[in-house]
From TrEMBL:
Superkingdom as given in the UniProt entry: Bacteria
Record organism: Gluconacetobacter dulcium
Protein's UniProt name: DUF2459 domain-containing protein
Pfam families: DUF2459 (PF09601)
Entry keywords, A to Z: Signal
Signal peptide coordinates: 1-25
Length: 223
């Protein structure tokens, strides 16, 4: 579905540059849980890249438009990344080397007819039960980072390999310190969850922090 953000997908280059931070390894498996009250929002591990899955019914404010854009969808995934790497493959060593440098960003919006835990398996997903106020704040954060066109709708800049995968211009810029994973952690924190984006670069950090938050808000799956 996605190729991930520029920093995390180019670990060999970054390691050579000395950018592999000690705190980014060995975070352990995320927690699969059953939501206890509220709406189940999904933190999804896509390898080196994390995304947020929001049930269509919980999309509000600036994100409510996706109910019309994706009729029949059950969950919508939101991911962040550098425009050049998200929407077009790198074709030279030079492009890989400049990947971590600042540049325009995009938000990928991907519609699903199922839930992420069923699509990717519980080991790749943390379920976060959120209140209506929290999902509203999450929608406001994500929607607030979507650049608007003249019609007031999110500005579409590219279509992915499948029609249910769309790329929209982001207001914020991608930097080494504002990556796809930092954006996801920031979104969860702005929603009101106990998830900090401080020092976040890699997916494992986000999944570990999400798992800790989930442990406080839901109980493990089981009989």
């Amino acid at each position: 579905m996605t190729r991930g953000c520029a920093v995390s997908r180019r670990l060999p280059v970054l390691a050579a540059l000395g950018l592999l931070l000690a705190g980014c390894a060995g975070t352990g498996r995320p927690l699969a849980c059953r939501a206890v009250g509220g709406t189940a929002v999904y933190l999804v591990d896509r390898g080196w890249h994390t995304e947020i899955g929001v049930p269509v019914a919980a999309l509000s404010g600036p994100l409510a438009v996706y109910r019309d854009i994706f009729p029949g969808a059950r969950t919508v995934l939101f991911g962040y990344g550098k425009k050049t790497f998200f929407t077009a493959p790198a074709s030279s060593v030079e492009e890989y080397l400049i990947g971590p440098f600042p540049g325009p960003a995009v938000v990928q919006v991907f519609a699903m007819t199922t839930t992420p835990d069923r699509a990717y398996g519980p080991d790749a997903v943390v379920v976060l039960p959120m209140s209506r106020a929290e999902t509203d704040r999450l929608s406001e954060f994500i929607g607030g980072d979507l650049e608007r066109g003249r019609d007031g709708r999110p500005r579409l800049i590219a279509v992915g390999h499948r029609p249910e995968s769309l790329f929209y211009a982001a207001r914020s810029r991608y930097t080494l310190f504002h990556t796809c994973n930092g954006w996801v952690a920031q979104a969860l924190g702005r929603a009101g969850l106990p998830v900090s984006d401080d020092g976040v670069v890699f997916a494992g950090q986000v999944m570990a922090r999400g798992a800790r938050a989930a442990a406080m808000m839901c109980r493990p799956e089981g009989p």
